[in-house]
Amino acid sequence: MLSLPSYQKKLEATEMWFLGRMLRISWTAKKTNDTVLEEAHTTRLLISKIRKRQATFFGHVMRREGLENLVTTGMLEGKRSRGKQREKLIEGLTDWLKAGKSLEAIEATKDRKKWRTMIANAVKQGT
């Protein structure tokens, strides 16, 4: 099994907490996440919805070619801050879309139909 990033683990835990609260399951009840999902008749959807919205917003920003474009791609001049660098939006999306390199993803945003099919395929794969 793949190791998930810490932010993804926190989002999944939050999603399960939401479901437990909606079903009025006490936190002291020893129920597994799988049983909570079965009771709710659902699957984990939060992360895929977030990624889909990020991808559609990224495509919108990249087609505009304004200041937002420069900030999103990280093409600004200047020094980087000290410490562990944050993951850029483009890097996270290229991993999720399995686009290979970030340049391929940026080029795909120019063609709206191609970009939408890439997003739809990534959502179908459920990553």
Characterization of this structure:
This is Endonuclease-reverse transcriptase. Keywords: Endonuclease, Hydrolase, Nuclease. One of its GO terms (molecular function) is endonuclease activity. The chain has 127 residues and is an all-alpha fold. The protein has seven helices and no strands. The radius of gyration is 18 Å and the shape is elongated.
Quick take:
The protein has helices at residues 6-22, 33-40, 46-64, 67-73, 89-97, 102-110, 112-125.
Descriptive key words:
127 residues, mainly alpha, elongated, Endonuclease-reverse transcriptase, hydrolase, endonuclease activity, nuclease
Topology summary:
Elements: H1 6-22, H2 33-40, H3 46-64, H4 67-73, H5 89-97, H6 102-110, H7 112-125
**What is the N-to-C order of secondary-structure elements (H for helix, E for strand)?**
HHHHHHH
The chain-level structural class is mainly alpha
Distance between the termini: 13 Å
Q: Taking Cα atoms only, what radius of gyration do you get, to the nearest Å? A: 18 Å
Shape: elongated
Work out the strand percent: under 5%
Keywords: Endonuclease, Hydrolase, Nuclease
Protein name: Endonuclease-reverse transcriptase
GO molecular function, one term: endonuclease activity
Organism: Plakobranchus ocellatus
